[in-house]
Amino acid sequence: MTSFETVPYRKLLNSLPVMLKVAICKPLTADEYSASASVYVHSSNPLPHISIQQLSQIYTRGNLPGDYSSWQQLEQYQETEAGSIYPLRLPDIAPLSVYLSQHHFGHLQPGSNGEYVGDTDALINKLENTPAAIAIAEAGRETPHIRAVPVSDENGNLFDATLENMQGGHYPLTRYLHLYQPKNQDGLISQSSVALAEFMLSPAGQKIINAQHRYAALSDELVSSQTHLLAQNS
Length: 234
Known about the structure:
With 234 residues, this protein is an alpha/beta fold. The protein is 30% helix and 19% strand. It has eight helices and eleven strands. The protein has helices at 6-13, 52-59, 95-103, 120-128, 163-167, 191-201, 203-210, 220-232; strands at 18-25, 37-42, 50-51, 86-89, 115-116, 133-138, 146-149, 151-152, 158-159, 176-181, 215-216. Strand 4 (86-89), helix 3 (95-103) and strand 5 (115-116) form a beta-alpha-beta unit. Helix 6 (191-201) crosses helix 7 and helix 6 (191-201) packs antiparallel against helix 8. The longest helix has 13 residues, at 220-232. It is elongated and about 60 Å long. The two termini are 21 Å apart. The model has no long low-confidence stretch (mean pLDDT 89).
């Protein structure tokens, strides 16, 4: 939930929500859905890694550092005869597109280059047959013809979309399952809501979450930080 989305929440419940992370949307196989995302290129593309800022410069327009249209504009791209970047996009109303716009691309308008495709399967198929393309899709969708690209952070560290990196809080495109807790008229979370959150963050609760097909337990560090956040508001 973004700050913009908290406005109707507050109007409805007269309270800002307390947002607790309770699980990780883990990477899955190519036949399954994952809410966390990976960046993909054609297997012939030598791109070694990419940052969230560079993705914004490829997928949107009006970026302060400038917008990208050619692979040669990326300093880590070493090919001397690279051509235009061809971004493949899901519809703007697709959940992943909305997530990227709100949380990573600063609500900037989509760029005019590239192509929209109807769904993830069509996007993967198009990428397999378009060497100049790049795509952002569900984690775990690699094929013999496309590969996932590590995402770099602001310090230049590279991270693959592995569960270990997600649980460690390192992978930038990790998505979490959140529990939104309203505050009562005293500005505190109700005791019944606290009890639910405490159980979900407990070893027993995290064990149940970890047994679910699409989710994974938080790291001990994340459980500790979310438990502390809960205590601050109850």
